[in-house]
Fold this protein.
Amino acid sequence: MMQLKMERVMASEVYKALYSLVETTQILFGPCKRKGSEYQRVNRMIKSGAIESIVDGERHYVTTKVLLDYFGSEEKLDKALSNLNNVVELYPSN
């Protein structure tokens, strides 16, 4: 039986396909709270159709492709996603 070696993968090397409203807000505007103005702004933009999203029940998710289209280049999106990783580490309760 062959054993496969699993390599350690850094969190910044793994990209998600879908981002929640909180994560999308943090990518676009930085740290946020659920009742904050930035979160409410993104929520309104998604519900009005300005930001494309996938709906699951009452939850909305934004795809990586939509964010890539918004930022215009993978380098800018990578920088924004690295900021998201920093925000998650600084604010573990979000």
The chain has one domain: 17-90. Residues 17 and 65 are 8 Å apart (CA to CA). The longest helix spans residues 74-90.
